[in-house]
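In keeping with the milestone schedule agreed at the kick-off meeting, the structural modelling team has produced records for the first pair of proteins. Each record is given below as a sequence line and a structure-token line. The laboratory manager (R.T.) confirmed that both were archived under the project's standard naming scheme.
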Amino acid sequence: MALNDDIALLSNVALFADISEDKLRLIAFGAERRRVLKGHELFREGAPADCAFAVAAGSFTLSKADGEGRLQHVATVERGALLSELALISMVERKFTATADEDSEVIRINRPLFRRMLEEYPEVTALVEARIRENLQAMIRRAEALAGRFA
């Protein structure tokens, strides 16, 4: 695919939605496209995460191992989803296994590339910080809504 197609895709990813095209060009130019065949794993739960993946085509099943090691379906993600976004900021472990439901493509965005953009464009840092804060607040609200079930 062309660089402009990757920029268009990244502009539809929630984390990057308010970032200008010229700044997204830096990510798209430095990112790597990968093809994942149907049934193959993009990554496995518990593995170190040194990058995030934007789904460019196809879909992935996200699953977690239960207490007996069997994979349990968590969600299905499609084009425009960003997997492991916190890996762009910090070393984390993958929280689930991602398996291609069909022949798919992802854009691999590594942490050094993303950090370079944050260093060069402080306004992008503010946007990303706000987006991550919003995501954490939404997660806290969801957890609080479930608190009654565990009282």
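The second protein of the pair:
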Amino acid sequence: MSLNVFCRYCGQQISDTDLVCGHCDSRQNFTEPSRDASRKNYEGVIAFVVCFFFGVFGIHRFIYGKIGTGILMLVTVGGFGIWWLIDLIRIAIGHFTDSRGNRLSLIHDH
């Protein structure tokens, strides 16, 4: 059974099984919801702990595949502590993603 959703680019209603919008020909990037929420939550805890203790050196960014920004954090000592604090908050509330776009969070979301 397919559901109706909206195109991410033009906003027209399409089926959730359409890979390309029939109105604007834009490729849709639908992702399956994570069925392993406990694994996701575990990764968020690890990311938070690593960020808390070693975040000023960008270690959490290296671990989760964000090498370029990890180097910037290393050179600037966590953006003079500000960038480190922002990353810590983003992980805690679920707005930090790894290099593949997977959200890492302390909170358990369904």
